[in-house]
Amino acid sequence: MSKRLESLQSPADLAKFSYPELEELAGEIRGFLIEKVSKSGGHLGPNLGVVELTIAIHRTFESPKDTVLFDTGHQSYVHKILTGRAQGFDKLRQRGGIAGYPNRAESEHDVIENSHASTALSWADGIARGNAINGQSDRTVVCVVGDGALTGGMSWEALNNIASSENLNLIIVVNDNERSYSPTIGGLATYLSTLRATSGYEKFLEWGKGVLEKTPVVGTPIFETLHGVKKGIKDIIAPQGMFEDLGLKYLGPIDGHDIGAVEKSLQSAKHFGAPVIVHVITEKGRGYAPAVNDEAEKFHAVGIVDPVTGIPVSKSNPSWTSVFSDELVSLGAKRKDLVAITAAMLGPTGLDKFQEHFPERTIDVGIAEQHAATSAAGLAFTGLHPVVAVYSTFLNRAFDQLLLDVALHKAGVTFVLDRAGVTGDDGPSHHGIWDLALTGIVPTLHVAAPRDGERVRETLRESIDISDAPSLIRFPKGAVGPDIPAFERRDGIDVLYRGESADILLISIGAMAHLCVEAAAQAYREGVGVTVIDPRWVKPLPASLVTMARRYKSVVVVEDGIRHGGIASTISEMFRDANLGVPIHSIGVPLTFIEHSKRSEILSDLGITAKNISNQLVTWSSSVKDDLTPAAMQLPLDESVDRKPNR
Ligand SMILES: Cc1ncc(C[n+]2csc(CCOP(=O)(O)OP(=O)(O)O)c2C)c(N)n1
């Protein structure tokens, strides 16, 4: 780390540098980011793009007295460096190291613990209003929001509200790099590109001011008049309507890599005393050729890469995403009614391949999961079958639309949730641990949790055949393991492992299957007979689950989601309704926010490992008293169930 970088302990330290020194500092920060992020993985492209912008913000405002907010928060690395956290980058996104998003526990300069896009303007509105109500008129709220995040509905709800208040000390910095992951598309993106094309406009005003001010007496008043009709002039040069018609003062467009120019605009905005939009143009991945040349995503988010070439260090194994992606393409060739919808995440959800083959049937709605869900209901109404692919964590946002627009209308829509379960390094708001509980309460919805690649393909095929109700498939992040074949399927339930005795029925949900099979094998060595089954479709659950469970002394459910309201809880309700008294235990995620760290570390903390599951099975088996053995045990054993362990 350079001496200059090392010397940065607080934003106030930036004041000592001249502009040429600041430019050097920007270069050093870029080198530092490339070095550190290439080792740990993270959001490289977005941060390389905001180096000068973040420097200018921290030189103009006094954080934490002034509040600096970053929408989504993935572009806050430079902010972290400037607020004394450069040392923490050795363990970026790792256990004990700094988070990939703002985090209050790390610094008084971090306010929103975000990661979900389009919320920052609402935070900014609330904080600025709070400051006004508290009489703290010396405080400014600065909110950096990307052109991608501006496509989210919440951003517009906030803008509408902010515009209604003239006395808020609130500056909205639109960081326009023309990209979400991929190029930002839609009407707003087109509008921003029109604004970008007006870069000569501010210069024209400056020139006009210079000339007119030199004209004695009438000069300044004429300039004021000219400025007064600014909007009109701008509308002639380029349509300026939207922001100013909303009642928001607009400054820009400004070169976001020119620290002096950005500071000048921020200074004018600061003294305006009402909400101002400062439109800044930046380049995603700036200063790093592999990122700039990455047409698809500009290194939006990378894994561990060679810092010189930007090439991933290790070859990745086939992922859950790629299995889904390939299957959807092959289904798309047969089924002309299939339409794919992404919320600004074409590549990460694997829909990029579908787009290559069927561009006319691929829709990118922007960061707008709510709209994606309801629009899918509309598409289904016309006889098409939409496949909405989003990360599990982002479906949270579209719950009402899933419930009332899709499910109530029994729309034949397939939702595909990637990154379900504990995800790891992206922290508390990125875990996909709520989906099973949330979707469990949606009438008409079918939910599948495939355990392996073959089941992803199979449940996807089954799901697109459901035309009179919505369906949803969820699978985790990362490499998909080998297929786990069933040696028997009964009423849709796969039997994966047969215990020698009927001690425990282990119900494995989704990708927990390999752990469960291993745990059952270990428990067998301890003399406990465990039969492992996988229902594949966890909603609705087949009624035969009750019949099956009657034969066992206890039932255990293992799921990669919150235990509270999850599948175990649905099953125990089912058993209660059927008057089945068999004890039921559950292993899953407790109701808590889980900090960033590797998925394997978190699962181990939570006891979701083969060893721990097996220990639990042994303990639970020994705790079942024989006199509590369910009456149903007296039922004749199913002849077809061979009691020998087969794995
Ligand atoms: C609700 C939600 N949906 C999807 C995402 C995934 N996501 C993270 S960053 C991003 C693009 C953000 O683009 P922009 O705001 O322009 O910031 P940039 O990375 O270009 O600086 C997306 C889609 C998210 N964070 N939140």
Give the tags.
alpha/beta; single chain; 26 helices; binds thiamine diphosphate; 40% helix; disordered C terminus; 7-stranded mixed β-sheet; 18 strands; 6-stranded mixed β-sheet; 647 residues
Question: What does this entry look like structurally?
Answer:
With 647 residues, this protein is an alpha/beta fold. The protein contains 26 helices and 18 strands. It has a 7-stranded mixed β-sheet, sandwiched between helices. Strands 12-13-15-14-17-18 form a 6-stranded mixed β-sheet, with helices on both faces. Strands 1-2-3-5-4 form a 5-stranded parallel β-sheet, with helices on both faces. Helix 9 runs antiparallel to helix 10, helix 15 runs parallel beside helix 16 and helix 17 runs parallel beside helix 19. The C terminus is likely disordered. Bound molecules: thiamine diphosphate (TPP). Thiamine diphosphate (TPP) binds next to loops.
Summarize the structure.
Helices cover 40% and strands 14% of the residues. With 647 residues, the protein is of the alpha/beta class. The radius of gyration is 28 Å and the shape is globular.
The 3D shape can be described as globular
Distance between the termini: 53 Å
Helix/sheet category: alpha/beta
Annotation, overall tally of beta strands: 18
Topology record:
Blueprint: H1 3-6, H2 19-40, H3 44-49, H4 51-60, E1 67-70, H5 77-85, H6 120-133, E2 141-146, H7 153-163, E3 170-176, H8 187-196, H9 200-214, H10 219-228, H11 230-237, H12 241-245, E4 249-255, H13 259-270, E5 276-281, H14 289-292, H15 320-334, E6 338-342, H16 351-357, E7 362-364, H17 369-381, E8 385-391, H18 392-395, H19 399-407, E9 414-418, H20 435-439, E10 446-448, H21 453-464, E11 471-474, E12 488-490, E13 493-497, E14 504-508, H22 513-525, E15 530-534, E16 537-539, H23 544-549, E17 554-562, H24 567-577, E18 584-589, H25 599-605, H26 610-623
Parallel strand pairs: 1-2, 2-3, 3-5, 4-5, 6-7, 6-8, 8-9, 9-11, 10-11, 14-15, 14-17, 17-18
Antiparallel strand pairs: 10-16, 12-13, 13-15
Helix pairs in contact: 4-13, 6-7, 9-10, 15-16, 15-21, 17-19, 22-26
